[in-house]
Please model this.
Amino acid sequence: GKSVAAKIAEYRRTGTIQAVDELRANLPAGALLLSKVPGVGPKRALRIAGELGLASVGDLERAVRGGRLRGVPGFGPKTEERILRGIEVAASDAALRDALRALPDGATEDDIGAVLAARVVITATGAEREGGAERGPGAGPRTAAAGTGSGKHETVRERDLIRVAHMRGDLHTHTDLTDGIVSLEGMIAAAGARGYAYYAVTDHAPNLVMQRMTDEKTLAQRARLRALADTAGLALLHGSELNIAADGSVDWDEEFLSGFDLCVASVHSSFEQDRATMTKRFITAIENPRVNIIGHPLTRKIGRRPPVQVDLDALYAACARTGTALEINASPDRMDLPPQHIAAARDAGVKFAVDTDAHSLADLANMRYGVAAARFGGLTTEDVINAWPLGRLKEFLRKGR
Model:
């Protein structure tokens, strides 16, 4: 409409929007800052900043620990726990993200691995609680990488550890059909320029309503992909990133899903489910015969959203039993499966897909971050399905069918 168009023009002309500046000026001091703490959000931030006069993250932490939030409607013990977790995540994870972002463009997987070794600190308590993603009652901490026994990172013994040069393709990417910003043709051309042997397009499925995907759009994209196959210079796989609903179900029935070459399934909502419910939710999706990869398994966004509560041992066992890969999401804003959990998943028999979850051309270069995390966990080409030849990958994707 005219109002929005005028504001866009104003922003392009001046770099600001007066109406937004006026609204911000009327906010209680600290509300914007507090709204960025995982577990708080805009509505809660407005309330506690206004009613309690909290202006900083330090004020918030002291208020929670002092029980001051319990007199504010909508705040209880569970909310307090989420906020304290959020404060911890914002402080610790952001340092990792910022360190990764600060690396030069020419940084290798070994350079990135050095950052991981310095920033990912595993202790007997930290490995056990990692955002609530616990292993199980009474279980001891998992170690950070192969050859580590003290709970602290030690140099991983070289086992022909995986490198970026070993990666034959990317199995989780997006185009401008959903929330990517580059066309199908543009993403395929960029993948070909990276020397990949195969490339999967996995735009969002319709249950993530804001992406406005439909059956018709999906089928039309598949037809375009098939038409490009002869001239692309690499094998093209048509996939989808499915949404794991609160009960573990995914978009589409098995008949429709059978038309895809592969399916990534991810949690995009209901992050606050308790550990038992979340674990059952994941296992239901893992047992779906058409789900090949669990995308960004702990759903974390570094500095913004903590990992979900899930029994990791049960998750690993289900993946190993069904032939479902866990993703190592290479985005510096995710790094999920977190590096400190990769070795334990490998020891449980899990296979991995190291993917960029690319939404732009620049994102395709993030593969090096995921590979560095895989090396941190002691993975070789035998452990990573998109380091395999296409024939072996396709056999894995059949999932025993």
The chain is about 40% helix and 10% strand. The longest strand covers residues 235-243.
